[in-house]
């Protein structure tokens, strides 16, 4: 359908990148993305949506490179509050909280932030390389990932629920089932008939999982912080030295397999239409735990650096690969790329098979800008980690009101619906209750995120395969492979419990 | 001073705040708030960013703003098959500061099949934007070349057909073809244009129903274009026969043409209560279609310039009524599909 690398277009792209305006756009875009990504509720999707109108007066190449850079920065930025205040800035950073925040509580926020910056930047570079070289064959492969395969992928990700952070299996499953139930609110995906909307028009679109996320994680954490009175727990002291950054570099260098596994999982999942960083970081974390020896596996969630590496190497790798179906087929791989698709079209480019032929130099300039942008994440992240890290340890009388305000603003900004503010409050209170009774919050969020993908994949796939269980489950070799993974995951869980 | 007394700074802060609030409300009460020209116009899009309606609105507002002299802010309200955005428009003040780009027959479907609180009469209509006919596509390896052959194939084997939404023009086209030729079609909502495109490219469906511009004309030659639900062929996918060319006139709405209109709608009452503002909005909107930069932008959007079709307020209102009538005529077809399923 389309060719591999085009040297002439790459040559033109390098010329574009040499422009000081374009380089400035990358510098600024990455910084803007990091800042907005770090605000709870302002995901990469919202960052792109917010800044698209701002870029309209600019020349398309500069504008699109700015937005692509902001996208990468925002995915990384989401991990900063996840590590500092147990508050994922974006859905792709939920898992980062598990070990990242535990490290912060041990006084090692700078160490965790520096590791996050290193693996985010490097994973982004790997995904950019894959996009540059393998975009055409991967986009064709992604097309084979149909509805049954998306359903099975969601089920595979759901098997992580029992593994989530050491709660009892029954409580994890119950919280996950409640999340799935929340995911059914809104118009059903086939016939557009409302379910459990209670007359609220805004709920026709369902309960947005970012809103649930803000309530459960951000607001509930504000309540807990007020109760605890301090971030650091136990006898730990806050580590502030530059040696934390060196330790971080050594930690990543001594775990190349863990880093590569996360980056490759992120690259693979990011390329699938409909799945992004929010799914990738769960799968990556679960795989890291599965591949670890028993002693290490038991320590996941207690503040080990392997957990941060698994989460942040996967979420940033989705950026480059999510652009593959977006640019080559015009099919967005995630919410952020759907927003980017709109921006690309708005700037006069027509995403699809002819894009590489008609605007090859611009497209390759966007791809090459990912290399600069991800290198910048490394620079900004490492240089900034010592300063970001101090935020976690400022007096909580400043943290609590500022985070609470951000939670409300972020909750409302998701879709300008006042009802979402009540949902944030409701889930904030529910989050406290669930923690008191030892129900894992993440299982609930995972249910909400995956419920939509699973339902849509199941209903559509079931109809397309003639309502035959055999045809559905054995739809392709990919489906069979996913079935094997699901079976393995369940067997391991059963044995461990 | 007791501990509850205000300090000087606090007193000043409270005073300034109080005066500001009083001034704002007082000005509003006395009718000295900003004039229409000094406000911004909210442009509602009832779909997510990046789709055809969003792109159409965003390339239109700059040229419109130049002529109107007022800035536009595009806001997306996706959800409920456009009902969320529809209610946002319905609840807006009819003062000229809110417009929406909607599409029909999706618009009519929200009040016919979803119990939306508004009706056709709840809005005023500024003008149409473009018309994208309903078109059938198929994976390239299928044993049929046009819709006539597809009908024969489906009669023998049954077939799966992907549509973009449960209650729009693509659903109606699939249901009308199935009913006319008594076909056993499994009609599957792929939840959007890109879903249909992906299903056709991957060969997951036997046919997909979409619009030629929405499908993306860059795919001409990569997929089979089986036919368009019209009497005359259309321009974007050359060599694609119309239903009439294929002798499929028995399918309803071939003569009228079944497609998707994009149109600009304002809250009802604007035309009556503020005729000057309505006229100004309508005139400046119509002038957009002569704007060179807008036409260039439309050309860059995969050939949108070729399907632009502006009609004025009265013609648009007539088109809305005609579409409402045929949607009501075939309401039972859609309802049977929804409730049987």
Describe this entry's structure for a reader:
The complex is a heterodimer of chains A (497) and B (341). Chain A is an all-alpha fold. Chain A has one domain. Helix content of chain A is 73%, strand content 0%. Chain A is built from 23 helices and no strands. Chain A has helices at residues 7-17, 20-37, 44-55, 60-77, 79-85, 94-105, 109-143, 147-158, 169-183, 209-228, 243-253, 256-270, 277-291, 294-299, 305-329, 335-346, 355-358, 360-391, 396-413, 419-436, 441-464, 469-473, 477-496. In chain A, helix 12 (256-270) packs antiparallel against helix 13 (277-291). The radius of gyration of chain A is 21 Å and the shape is globular. The N and C termini of chain A lie far apart (49 Å). The relative contact order of chain A is 0.20. The mean pLDDT of chain A is 84. By secondary structure, chain B is α/β, with parallel strands linked by helices. Chain B folds into 2 domains: 36-132 and 259-336, D-Maltodextrin-Binding Protein, domain 2 (3-Layer(aba) Sandwich), CATH 3.40.190.150; 135-257, Periplasmic binding protein-like II (D-Maltodextrin-Binding Protein, domain 2, 3-Layer(aba) Sandwich). Chain B is built from 13 helices and 10 strands. A 5-stranded mixed beta sheet of chain B has the order 2-1-3-10-4, with helices on both faces. Chain B has a 5-stranded mixed beta sheet with strand order 7-6-8-5-9, sandwiched between helices. In chain B, helix 2 links the parallel strand 1 (41-45) and strand 2. In chain B, helix 2 (52-68) packs across helix 10 (275-288) and helix 2 runs antiparallel to helix 11. Chains A and B meet through helix 3, helix 16 and helix 21 of A and helix 2, strand 2, helix 3, strand 7 and helix 7 of B.
């Amino acid at each position: 359908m389309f060719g591999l690398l085009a040297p002439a277009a790459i040559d033109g792209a390098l010329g574009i990148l040499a422009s000081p305006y374009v380089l400035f756009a990358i510098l600024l875009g990455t910084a803007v993305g990091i800042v907005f990504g770090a605000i709870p509720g302002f995901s990469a999707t919202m960052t792109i949506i917010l800044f698209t109108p701002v870029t309209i007066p600019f020349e398309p190449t500069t504008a699109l490179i700015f937005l692509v850079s902001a996208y990468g920065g925002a995915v990384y930025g989401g991990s900063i509050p996840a590590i500092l205040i147990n508050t994922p800035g974006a859905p792709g950073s939920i898992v980062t909280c598990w070990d990242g925040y535990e490290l912060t509580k041990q006084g090692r926020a700078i160490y965790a932030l520096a590791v996050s910056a290193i693996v985010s930047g490097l994973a982004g570079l790997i995904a950019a390389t894959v996009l540059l070289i393998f975009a055409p064959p991967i986009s064709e492969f992604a097309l084979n990932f149909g509805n049954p395969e998306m359903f099975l992928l969601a089920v595979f990700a759901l098997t992580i629920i029992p593994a989530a952070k050491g709660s009892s299996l029954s409580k994890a499953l119950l919280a996950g089932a409640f999340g799935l139930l929340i995911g059914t609110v809104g118009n059903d995906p086939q016939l557009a008939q409302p379910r459990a909307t209670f007359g609220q028009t805004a709920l026709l679109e369902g309960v947005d999982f970012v809103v649930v996320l803000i309530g459960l994680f951000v607001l509930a954490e504000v309540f807990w912080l007020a109760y605890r009175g301090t971030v650091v727990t136990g006898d730990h002291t806050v580590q502030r030295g530059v040696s934390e950054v060196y330790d971080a570099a050594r930690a990543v260098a001594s775990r190349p397999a863990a880093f590569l596994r996360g980056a490759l999982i992120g690259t693979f999942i990011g390329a699938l239409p409909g799945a992004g960083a929010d799914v990738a970081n769960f799968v990556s974390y679960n795989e890291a735990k599965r591949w670890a020896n028993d002693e290490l596996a038991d320590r996941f969630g207690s503040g080990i650096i392997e957990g941060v590496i698994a989460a942040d190497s996967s979420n940033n790798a989705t950026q480059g690969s999510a652009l593959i179906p977006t640019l080559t087929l015009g099919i967005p791989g995630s919410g952020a790329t759907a927003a980017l698709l709109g921006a690309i079209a708005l700037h006069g480019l027509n995403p699809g098979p002819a894009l590489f032929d008609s605007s090859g130099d611009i497209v390759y300039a966007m791809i090459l800008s990912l290399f600069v942008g991800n290198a910048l994440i490394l620079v900004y992240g490492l240089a900034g980690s010592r300063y970001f890290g101090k935020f976690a340890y400022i007096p909580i009388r400043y943290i609590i009101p500022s985070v609470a305000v951000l939670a409300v603003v972020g909750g409302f900004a998701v879709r300008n619906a006042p009802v979402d503010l009540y949902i944030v409050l409701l889930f904030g209170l529910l989050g406290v209750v669930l923690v008191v009774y030892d129900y894992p919050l993440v299982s609930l969020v995972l249910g909400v995120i995956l419920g939509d993908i699973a339902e849509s994949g199941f209903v559509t796939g079931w109809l397309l395969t003639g309502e035959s269980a055999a045809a559905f489950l054995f739809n392709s070799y990919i489906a069979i492979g996913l079935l094997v993974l699901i079976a393995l995951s369940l067997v391991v869980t059963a044995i461990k419990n | 001073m007791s501990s509850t007394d205000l300090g000087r700074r606090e007193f000043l802060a409270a005073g300034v705040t109080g005066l500001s609030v009083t001034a704002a409300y007082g000005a509003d009460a006395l009718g000295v708030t900003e004039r229409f020209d000094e406000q911004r116009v909210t442009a509602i899009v009832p779909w997510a960013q990046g789709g055809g309606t969003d792109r159409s609105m965003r390339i239109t507002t700059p040229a419109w703003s130049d002529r109107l002299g007022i800035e536009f802010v595009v806001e997306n309200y996706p959800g409920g098959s456009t009902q969320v955005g529809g209610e946002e428009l319905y609840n807006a003040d009819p003062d000229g500061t809110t417009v929406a780009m909607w599409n029909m027959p999706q618009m009519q479907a929200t009040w016919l099949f979803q119990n939306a609180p508004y009706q056709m009469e709840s809005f005023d209509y500024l003008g149409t934007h473009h018309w994208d006919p309903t078109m059938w596509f198929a994976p390239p390896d299928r044993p049929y070349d046009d819709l006539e052959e597809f009908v024969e194939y489906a009669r023998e084997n049954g077939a799966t057909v992907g549509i973009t939404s449960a209650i729009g023009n693509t659903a109606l086209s699939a249901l009308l073809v199935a009913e006319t030729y008594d076909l056993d079609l499994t009609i599957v909502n792929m939840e959007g244009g890109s879903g249909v495109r992906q299903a056709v490219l991957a060969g997951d469906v036997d046919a997909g129903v979409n619009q030629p511009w929405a499908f993306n004309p860059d795919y001409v030659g990569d997929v089979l274009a089986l036919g368009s639900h019209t009497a005359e062929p259309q321009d974007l996918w050359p060599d694609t026969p119309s239903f009439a060319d294929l002798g499929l006139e028995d399918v309803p709405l071939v003569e009228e043409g079944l497609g998707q209109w994009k149109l600009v709608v304002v809250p009802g009452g604007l035309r009556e209560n503020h005729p000057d503002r309505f006229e100004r909005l309508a005139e400046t909107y119509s002038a957009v279609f002569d704007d060179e930069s807008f036409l260039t932008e439309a050309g860059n959007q995969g050939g949108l310039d070729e399907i632009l079709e502006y009609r004025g307020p009265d013609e648009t209102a007539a088109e809305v009524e005609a579409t409402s009538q045929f949607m009501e005529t075939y309401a039972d077809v859609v309802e049977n599909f929804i409730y049987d399923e």
